Write the structure tokens for this entry.
Amino acid sequence: MIRFDNVSKSYPGSQGGLHEVSLHIEPGEMIFLTGHSGAGKSTLLKLVGLLERPNRGQIRVNGHNLGRISRRRLPLFRRQVGMIFQDHRLLADRTVFDNVALPLVVAGVGRGETRRRVQAALDKVGLLHKAKALPETLSGGEQQRVGIARAVVSRPPVVLADEPTGNLDPELSVEIMELFRRFNQVGVTLLIATHDLALVERFGMRTLILKEGRLAGERR
Amino acid sequence: MKRRNGGRLRPPFRPRAWAARHLQVLISSLGRLWRRPLGNFMSILVIAIALALPTGLHLLVHNLERLAGGWQGAASATLFLRREISDDQVKRLLKQLREDPAVGLVRHLTPAQALDDFRRHSGMADAITLLETNPLPHVVMIRPADPHIAPARFKNLVERLRKRPEVERAIADLQWVERFQGMVDLVRRSALLLSALLSLAVLLVIGNTIRLEIQSRRDEIEIVKLVGGSQAFIRRPFLYEGFWYGLLGAILALVLLAVSLVALRVPVARLAHLYASDFTLKGPGFTVVLLLLAAGSALGVLGAWVAVRQQLRRIEPH
């Protein structure tokens, strides 16, 4: 589902980035990505979601060679990858419902179908009763769940999460991870970057460890 | 859960959904303008003034041409006949002139009548009675059959008459019509130039307004790009917003013109009355109205397009 072949990415004037990373993630896997801040976790996720392009190497996601995806085709690729951020990235002036509906709206899904799927996604994250609320009236954990609902509402085969539990207390973090596990059980490939090692151990999934931009190890 | 297969990155085209999306954006972008009524009204007013000025000049030219058309009806020429010709020759010439299809009115003044006229109007009656013989020739005044004849064609007609053996001199009373025409041409040319410049101004005003709008919605654009919004999807509301600015600007321009016309109606009627004319100002016709609305909308979309092209590329999620 996701394959990196000798991928390097450097930022001018900065230490971060990735060096010669090769990895392979099977369809339906749930993978943790750990490492200190600055180890390249975010960079790796950005490369998978085509928020950045590598300087060297080849990346394949869901059968697409990312180097061959033009600007024009980029949006269509993004619809196949759900992305979740630590800072949620919700639209402050739209309701929870409208935020979650956004990926369907941009894809031109019909009204009835959109309503059905948004409600299903909100139901899954337990926020159906907050559909009409504005994001800022929700707690941090709730906002994160709205972000998750948005990432999965269009049923993408791949979901990326960058520190999804970064601002949450341990109890809520476990809740969020349980949510991810349920998505994984229905076949979604998940790549979750986190520095919360306790959480990683608790769930015991395959874990990739990044160190200074290189793949330093792997645990199962 | 059903999964979409990877591999194909081509969107399906559904015409009805496409039309529905456009209609939805058309209305929502108008709604967005309402949210900042004062600032947007100012922009629209600037656009309206920029559109109203050249259109007003066009109306001025149009009305002046109508006025000139009326005056050209008064175009006339005076033929001075040779003094040595006989009365029979004069009669034959008059007959031929009356039969000439290009010539309308023919008025004949005998030397005696001419002298009488002169005596009455020149204030030199005493001097004239001292004359032993009448020095004045037969005079024939003619008008063209077609009152709206073009100055050049009228000149040709007068030239043709001048070449007749009975005619010594022919004077076309055209100079002032030509001068007037020249001035109208000048105003017309200025209107064209002003249209071009002010169109550019409208383009810049709308482009700048849309540019600010894009800046203020930067976060939103990033998020929409993040979830796979296409360039067209992101562009659309801004293009429609430009369309509304242009269209509303054009409508307001028409209102400004209508108000100006009403304000000018009375003084124009008074002036026309002084010249014993029933001339009235004519407003823009259906074609001009339609053209102005179309030009406004087109400039709006174009201005927005320029801004969108420059700006949207720079906004990428990170």
Remarks:
- The longest helix of chain B spans residues 231-274.
- Chain B touches chain A through 29 residues (CB under 8 Å).
